[in-house]
Prior knowledge:
By secondary structure, this protein is of the alpha/beta class. It has helices at residues 2-25, 60-68, 92-96, 115-123, 142-152, 215-221, 226-236, 260-266, 269-280, 282-289; strands at residues 46-51, 76-82, 102-107, 128-131, 136-138, 157-159, 162-164, 193-195, 201-203, 241-243, 249-251.
Amino acid sequence: MREWFQRIISLRNKVVRRLKAEVNNARLSFIRPKNGLNTEKRQEQVIISLASYKARYSILPKTLKSILWQTYKPDRIYVWLDSDVPKNQLTPEMKEFERYGVTFRFTDDDLKPHKKYYYVMQEFPDAVIITFDDDIIYGRKVVERLVKKHFKYPDAICAGRVHRITWDKQGHIKPYRQWIWDCDMGNKPCFDLFATGCAGVLYPPGALPGKAFSAEKIRELCLYADDIWLKFMELAAKIPVVHVMNVTMCGIEESNETALGNENVIGNRNDIYISQMIEHYPKEFEFLKSNIL
């Protein structure tokens, strides 16, 4: 068993090293201007959206390169930035991505990670929205695999990485760190699967209810944990999550110092957010409890 596990870890490390090398050595010149986007007619627009901020400007180009090289091209790519950093302060490398279809948008609501879905879903309610993180390098077929799963389950949230929510004997949710992480559940949509944003999440058109876009409630209850806020909004809409298997991705080391996930998990802040959401959205919580497999 130990030998088998070591082989799996060794294979994963090889994939990660290859993926990082490809992105580090890649030049934008391998994509002709505007060829980062789809040029064919589709029944549904596919839009990629992510949020970033000034501390990540140095690593963002690695993520954008990996998005531009996807085998399944999106119709639009949006990067949402804070308006306190004007456009003329974008790095030259970031500006170069505009030639290949990336659009930088500036917001002044200070909604932290929620920016990656908040504006684009309201502006394009009939589009398929795929959210990515700004500190991840993605394999070439991530979008393709997300979209294929969407075709199979058009009424589900499709996520490249999921956790399974676990419960104690009294029917209470266990602490976040005691959930079943990286759960391999690729065959069936479930309500007790929790989509994490790092590996890419696909949202069908109009997936979230109107109350998902209450900036006031977001700030009050879950400002730094968009995944938790989104889970409760998915429950409000009675929309399950399905795991998309074989999604290749890896983190960018330079981002570790500013990663929100570290504080949310290690500092147990996620458990505080979950408790607040349960208190304010008891119907959604009861719906989850009644739909455990």
